[in-house]
Specification:
Blueprint (H helix, E strand, L loop, with lengths): L37 H6 L33
Length: 76
């Protein structure tokens, strides 16, 4: 049976892998490489709220205390 595991690999200026992942011994792996678009990589973290929402919300107090911890469905 096969299962998928996502690994993000980075290359240096010469196209060599920066670091190799540790893999289980004595196993065979099939790799499919999908190159990310450079534009997508540059836009990570540049999110902005919709113009209709800008300035209309005010956060009062601790947002995480607004609901029980179990309700947030956070990974442990």
């Amino acid at each position: 049976m096969m299962y998928a595991e996502r690994l993000m690999l980075e290359t240096d200026a010469q196209g060599r892998l920066r670091s190799l992942p540790r893999l289980p011994p004595n196993r065979r792996f099939e790799a499919i490489f999908l190159a990310e678009d450079e534009e997508r990589v540059k836009t990570v973290g540049l999110r902005h709220p919709h113009p209709d929402l800008v300035g209309s919300l005010t956060v009062l107090g601790d947002v995480m205390e607004s609901a029980p911890l179990a309700a947030w469905d956070l990974p442990t």
